[in-house]
Amino acid sequence: MDYDNLRLTDWLPTTRKEMEIRGWDSLDVIIVSGDAYVDHPAFGAAVIGRLIEAEGYKVGILPQPNWKDDLRDFKKLGAPNLFFGVTAGCMDSMVNHYTAARRKRSNDAYTPGGEIGFRPDYATIEYTKILKTLFPDVPVMIGGIEASLRRVTHYDYWKDQLMPSILVDSGADVLVYGMGEMPLKALIKAVAQGIPMNTLKNIPQTAVLIPREDPLPNEAWQTVELSSHEVCQQDKIAYARNFKYIETESNKQKANRLTQVVGDKKLIINPPYPTMTEKEIDASFDLPYTRLPHPKYKTRGTIPAFEMIKFSVNMHRGCFGGCSFCTISAHQGKMIASRSEESIIKEVEQVTKMPDFKGYISDLGGPSANMYKMKGKVQEICDRCVSPSCIHPMVCHNLDTSHKPLTALYKKVNELPAIKKAFVSSGIRYDLLVDDYNVSDETDSLDEYMEQLVKHHIPGRLKVAPEHTSEPVLRIMRKPSFKHFHTFKKKYDAANEKAGLKQPLVPYFISSHPGCELQDMANLAIETKDMGFQLEQVQDFTPTPMTVATEIYYTGVHPYTLQPIYTVKDPQEKKDQNKFFFWYKSENHQWIKDKLNKAKHPHLIKQLLSFAPKRDSFKDAIMEKQFVKKEFPRPFERMYGKQAPGKKK
Question: How far, in whole angstroms, is CA 363 from its chain's centroid?
């Protein structure tokens, strides 16, 4: 793309004037989004808009319309010929707005200047209600992560109650869940043929409401009936059982249909499409994105989320980790959909032509950066699998965990003339690089990958996510034993020493996760202190819809075993757990002594508050941190499932 000669018409229209420049008097589809419009494959509204355009339809975008005035923003593009598409944006609007302590956030990464207040709470519901009032005869399709993860009865942390499928409260005609390319193509084709959207009840990867007594369409699908919304409201155990079925079916290659009674309606959740093929995912990423924010934002400041990823390239979708607190698999799927080398190299070359590019790719990554090209060795075994994770409690013998395709791709990117460095910043699954944990690798690729990664692709520091040190908590999290992190650190340190480099590890940890008690946090602080860490990347557990951890938080039991699990809920206790991360701050020392004495664990005080080991090359680490911050901003965590970044401690 010739960035020096971009025209306004290179973006999808956002105003009537932009429609007129194109010679359009109406649009076929209008997308309403809670995010600012960034025409980039990391932003869902842009992906859907470009897909509809590629199908031959006229599409426009209403980004962050004002819902508090006379609603003129919702009217300015007129009524679409086919339907409205509504998304809250790249994050659930409540996660976007509030911290784990339910405090209002001070910034919005998806708004120019990071300003807050440009989208409503429960944005999908609010936008759809407005559209149904203004344009009662126009169908509304909802999608994106907020709709996807709220497609069935779910616990809402901010209201502290169960909410029904978002179809009920929004009044939308159809819901597309997961990555929307395949179901959207089928929907738009049917609607363009004149089939009313509210009659489309059997398109895969969609959810609809029908009258309770109506027969189910498409009897070829097997059906699992969930406990009704009303039963779930009265019976937490029934609600917990529901989740086991929901997660199991969302991770299957050949899933069953789910149904649930909600009042006088019946919710139908059709099985998902198969994992996208290489050709299909390439087609999505190869659409003609400008990769830039719409010019309308030039005077409003930068969009933080865009600044973090503008020189990055996403190589695949999906994650087979199945972490209990994460929503990636519920939205993107468990199976990895990987792009071709050709598509990735093509995008890298496009990035090199962007304004202000200085030779550095900030991230060659994905939800978990080192899962590229990984899949089952025998697909028929995967087709029968119902496990939520391919690597917990151990790495599946049928999983091809070879890192050779990824290592080869890194080398090809490095050989491009315009590339000085191509970094991996989105975080890796460290356990896949531990030989005594990942016994599935038959290609002896792990050491080669580690050497390539350490020598050429770390932007000063490497991010990994052990999440905790307690064995019982890690089992609930579906994460490996912390002993494997010790092994990884030794291997990583040795690789750095061999390369003559000093690149610190930056481990991520979570407090207040189900199963975690105060003593577990004290032990976490002691063990990480003994390893030489002063933790920075930490967060308090935030219950988000459709995760195992959230169901435990609400019901008090594990949805697979129905056995009770202790979970801290009191706000002060949650603060107390989080405070142990910062044992090294002198103002916390007396507090730690008091807490551990009260908890009758005085023996831990000396271990935690004795003289801390000096960090290796501390001055160098600080210099590297400043360098990273200045030149290569930390890429925004992949939009699907990672906890939203809170205010830095």
Answer: 16
Report long-range pairs for 441-444 (Cβ below 8 Å, ≥24 apart).
Answer: 441/401, 441/402, 441/403, 442/402, 443/402, 443/403, 443/404
Q: Torsion angle of alpha carbons 539, 541, 542, 547, nearest 10°?
A: 130
Are 13 and 19 in contact by the 8 Å Cβ rule? The answer is yes
Q: Is the Cα torsion angle 540, 546, 552, 555 positive or negative in sign?
A: positive
DSSP-assigned beta bridge partners for residue 261: 266
Q: Could you tell me what percent of the chain has a pLDDT over 90?
A: 89
What average pLDDT is seen over the chain?
A: 93
Q: Are 503 and 462 in contact (CB under 8 A)?
A: yes
Q: How many CB atoms lie within 10 A of CB 471?
A: 11
Angle between helix axes 589-598 and 518-530 (nearest 10 degrees) is 130
Q: Which helix (H) or strand (E) holds 629?
A: helix 618-631
The domains found in the chain, sorted by start residue, are 3-269 (3.40.50.280), 311-631 (3.80.30.20)
Residues sharing a CB contact under 8 Å with residue 65, sequence separation 6 or more, in sequence order: 32, 71, 73, 74, 127
Judge residue 247's burial from the number of C-beta atoms within 10 Å of its C-beta, 0-12 exposed, 13-18 middle, 19 or more buried. buried
Tell me the pairing of strands 421-422 and 360-361: parallel
User: How far is CA 108 from each of CA 53, 116, 350, 359, rounded to the nearest angstrom?
Assistant: 28, 5, 28, 28
167 to 116, 473, 528: CA distances (angstroms): 26, 35, 45
Q: What is the value of pTM for the model shown?
A: 0.92
Question: Would you state the structure tokens that stand for residue 28, as one six-digit string?
Answer: 């076929």
In this structure, what are the phi and psi dihedrals at residue 269, rounded to the nearest 5 degrees?
-115, 105
> In this predicted model, what pLDDT tens digit does every residue of 16-26 receive, in sequence order?
999 999 999 99
Concatenate the DSSP letters of all residues of 444-508 into one string.
--HHHHHHHHHHHS-SSSEEEEEE-S-HHHHHHHT---HHHHHHHHHHHHHHHHHHT----EEEE
* Longest CA pairwise span in the chain (Å): 76
Decide if 248 contacts 326 (C-beta within 8 A).
no
Q: Give the residue from 55, 36, 34 showing the smallest Cα distance to 145.
A: 34
Tokens of 285: 């990423």
What per-residue confidence (pLDDT) applies to 647? 39
For residue 640, pLDDT beyond 70: no
Query: Contact 481/442 with Cβ under 8 angstroms?
Result: no
Q: Are 162 and 229 within 8 A, CB to CB?
A: yes
Instruction: List all residues 6 or more positions away from 570 whose beta carbon is below 8 Å from its beta carbon.
Output: none
